[in-house]
Design brief:
Blueprint: H1 20-35, E1 40-46, E2 52-60, E3 70-72, H2 79-86, E4 90-92, H3 94-103, E5 116-123, E6 128-136, H4 144-166, E7 178-181, H5 206-222, H6 226-238, E8 245-252, E9 255-262, H7 266-272, E10 275-276, H8 282-289, E11 293-295, H9 298-304, E12 316-324, E13 327-336, H10 345-381, E14 393-400, E15 410-417, E16 423-430, H11 435-453, H12 458-471, E17 478-485, E18 491-497, E19 503-505, E20 518-519, E21 533-536, E22 541-546, H13 553-556, H14 558-571, H15 577-590, E23 598-605, E24 616-621, H16 628-642, H17 649-666, E25 671-677, E26 681-688, H18 709-721, E27 724-730, E28 733-741
Parallel strand pairs: 2-7, 18-20
Antiparallel strand pairs: 1-2, 1-6, 2-3, 4-5, 5-6, 8-9, 8-13, 9-10, 11-12, 12-13, 14-23, 15-16, 16-17, 17-18, 18-21, 19-22, 22-23, 24-25, 25-26, 26-28, 27-28
């Protein structure tokens, strides 16, 4: 806060108080304005965490709207950051800026035209405050005297800011830059009429509001999701106008629904969510009347709505209609700390324009998310609900959606029972990321499954699927790989249509196969023929089928990416299959941007019954059927008695029922329980449709506020009693698994 001797003055733009710091910066920019003919002149200050430089004040010129509002303090692509870091005056000539733009194309948005840029650090021996930057468009020679004068002005400003900082004046960068009107080059400032104040005091200009609108438009243009629109509204609308919280509400089917909120408590959001539009509330009245409602205190709000649901946390609020395409679509609630200042008429005009942009972006983002959710639900519904549970094989799968474009694609996998007792492993990828790609994928998957169950070999299945896709009304093509596995002999017949060859490693991680013959993708040539190859699997072999989205081929190239995946598979082929699958997809899950979806199907061949383990078992519990837990206990008792493992009953029953109960409570699906006996352990898998992993939670004092405490403590029991356990998303949901060691007799 300002010291008493330098108190804030309520004469800044949009009612923002000017401080002694503002006046010092304005005086420095005026000095430059009198002696230097520039296109823009900006003072940058550090943010509170010292990580960014933010525009704090500008001289109002025709080019001031092009000035970047903030830059990373260590980004040497900008002269202000380089001057701030080096402590020297920095001059960027046009040729250097062009070279930077070629190396970093994103800089084109701030350097789309030829220019010269000079920056000087605002720093003393003890403090670093920021930088002052001048730009010239078009570029012109900059004399050494001009750079020296810039350095002197910046040094003098740094000394003055240091004195003010020692008096307690805040040096934190503002949310919105102040603008000072430009003087004709070479003219000294004059007193305003009446001699009341000097132009060194920032005064409102239209550029300030244009700058706000331009920054909001830039953020909303890049907004894809509702959360992006909310973030833009918070940074460009709420904070610049002094607000502390924002809530965005849409009117739908006679009710008001909160689709985004920041700064409001959960209770405050619940008070608004689902409100009937026929009720008399500030939100609904704002929508019906298309009028802004402003309450400068909580008391004023309660007086206006005495019958409303009291909110003990309420402060000053403004309710503004959200308008899109000429109709009221919702309401924006802004909350301000008290005592709230009145909103000036010009601010209301700007707010109305800004919220119209927010409303349109909100509607666009909501439509996108609805379409995305529909498409993703359809895509996931076409994946297998569960994989078969057989004594001869162990199988798991992973599906990772893309994060670019439509965020869904046509990747799929399947395991098909074959007429002769074997299984067919299928993986495929339809071109593109769209609802059409998902629809084509569904048709292909059904076709492949039908041809396989008719008894055709892999090559014939691909030929028929190729003719099927060629006959559909689509320009999309697809890749596919089919592996028919004889469970008794371990023979795998394989055919591939434009798809990466599966990887197969034997016991000890040694590679069994190299690249297999690859035919053309499906849908390219209706008369294409496909070759088939036979591979022999030994017990303990691991087979990996995957789509190319799993490979980081963009960085490594296709061959190197395939080799990398092969090394991971070989080095860890003896791992638990769920752990191995997680290891394979771990790198890709950490990528912030996934340009393609990915599917992985992992199978370990255990061999015929006489060579491998002896027993497996399986049961299902209907969704939300908590009495089904009692059925699980009965099932386990009978099963362990048949397997002659009654000594494990207490431990296995306790751990299994904890995991099953957790799945029944949190997953809106039936729960699939699977057991498999090994020579030294029993493995239990609980599969459900909720992809979110359970998290062990310690007992806390405020348990009533900890929604995950109950299930979390159950997992602590699992962690204590199981020899090993884990949880991974797999296909349409997740698999929580654990292993109980067999005690030696």
């Amino acid at each position: 806060m300002d010291s008493p001797s330098s108190a804030a003055r309520p004469d800044g733009p949009a009612g923002r108080p000017t401080t002694s710091r503002d006046r010092a910066i304005a005086a420095a920019l005026r000095r430059l304005n009198r002696h230097v003919d520039f296109s823009t002149c900006t003072a940058y200050l550090l943010t509170e965490d010292d990580r960014a430089l933010v525009a704090a004040m500008m001289v109002d010129t025709t080019m001031s709207f092009t000035v970047p509002s903030g830059i990373a303090a260590d980004d040497s692509n900008f002269s202000a950051a380089r001057a701030h870091q080096s402590g020297r005056v920095v001059l960027f000539e046009n040729s250097e800026l062009r070279e930077l733009t070629r190396r970093v194309p994103a800089l084109f948005l701030t350097n789309p035209y030829p220019m010269m840029v000079a920056s000087a650090p605002v720093r003393t021996d003890r403090h670093r405050f920021g930088a002052v930057t001048m730009r010239w468009v078009p570029p012109r020679p900059v004399a050494d005297e001009t750079l020296d004068y810039l350095r002197v002005v910046a040094e003098d400003l740094a000394v003055e800011l240091q004195d003010l900082a020692q008096q307690g004046v805040s040096m934190k960068a503002p949310d919105l830059p102040l603008f000072i009107s430009a003087l004709p080059h070479g003219n000294a400032p004059t007193e305003r009429s009446g001699g009341a104040e000097s132009p060194t005091v920032p005064v409102p200009t239209s550029s300030m509001f244009l700058y706000q609108l331009q920054r909001l438009a830039a953020e909303l243009t890049a907004a894809v999701h509702i959360r992006d629109v909310l973030a833009a509204a918070e940074s460009q609308v709420v904070r610049p106008f002094g607000g502390r919280a924002v809530m965005l509400c849409l009117a739908q089917q006679g009710r008001l629904h909160v689709i985004g909120a920041s700064g409001f408590s959960r209770e405050a959001v619940h008070r608004v969510e689902g409100t009937l539009l026929s009720r008399h509330t500030p939100e609904t009245d704002t929508i019906r009347s298309l009028e802004i409602r402003s309450f400068r205190s909580a008391e004023a709000l309660r007086d206006a709505y005495p019958d409303g649901d009291p909110d003990p946390e309420v402060q000053a609020r403004a309710y503004l209609p959200l308008v899109s395409n000429g109709r009221a679509m919702g309401c924006c609630v802004l909350e301000f700390p008290e005592p709230a200042r009145p909103i000036a008429p010009e601010e209301l005009a700007v707010l109305a324009i800004m919220l119209e942009q927010v409303g349109q972006s909100l509607e666009r983002a909501r439509s996108y998310e609805i379409e995305h959710a529909l498409t993703q639900t359809l895509q996931r519904s076409l994946l297998p609900r569960s994989l078969p549970h057989l004594t001869e094989v162990v199988a798991t799968a992973r599906y990772l959606p893309a994060t670019e474009g439509a965020e869904v694609g046509g990747d799929w996998y399947d395991i098909v029972p074959l007429p002769g007792g074997g299984i067919g492993l299928v993986i495929g990828d339809v071109e593109g990321h769209s609802l059409e790609a998902v629809a084509v994928m569904g048709q292909l998957r059904s076709g492949v499954r039908a041809y396989a169950t008719e008894g055709h070999d892999p090559a014939t299945v691909l030929e028929r699927s190729n003719r099927l896709l060629s006959g559909l009304d689509t320009d999309l093509y697809a890749t596919c790989c089919c592996v028919w596995l004889d469970l008794q002999t371990g023979t795998a017949a394989t055919a591939t249509a434009g798809h990466p060859s599966p990887l197969l490693v034997g016991v000890g991680g040694r590679s069994i196969t190299g690249p297999l013959p690859v035919g053309p993708p499906l849908g390219v040539d209706p008369l294409a023929r496909y070759e088939q190859s036979d591979v022999q699997l030994e017990p303990g072999s691991v087979l990996a089928l995957f789509t190319d989205g799993l490979l980081d081929a963009r960085l490594l190239g296709s061959d190197a990416a395939m080799a990398k995946l092969g090394r991971v598979l070989a080095d860890h082929s003896g791992d638990n299959l769920e752990v191995l699958a997680d290891r394979i997809v771990a790198d890709r899950r950490e990528w912030r941007v996934l340009a393609d979806d990915a599917a992985l199907l992992l199978v370990r061949y255990e061999g015929a019954q006489s060579q491998g383990h002896r027993r497996t078992a399986r049961m299902s519990v209907q969704r939300h059927h908590l009495q089904g837990v009692a059925q699980v206990r009965v099932f386990l008792r009978d099963l362990l008695r048949q397997w002659d493992r009654a000594q494990l009953q207490e431990t296995l029953e306790l751990v299994t029922t904890e995991v099953v109960t957790n799945a029944l409570i949190h997953a809106d699906s039936e729960v699939d329980l699977r057991l498999r006996e090994y020579p030294d352990r029993i493995r239990v898998e609980v599969r459900d449709s909720d992809p979110h992993p359970p998290v062990p939670t310690a007992i806390v004092a405020e348990e009533e506020t900890n929604q995950e405490a109950e299930s979390g403590r159950g997992l602590l029991i699992v962690d204590a009693l199981a020899g090993d356990w884990g949880s991974s998303p797999a296909g349409r949901g997740k698999t929580t698994w654990f292993e109980i060691a067999l005690r030696a007799e």
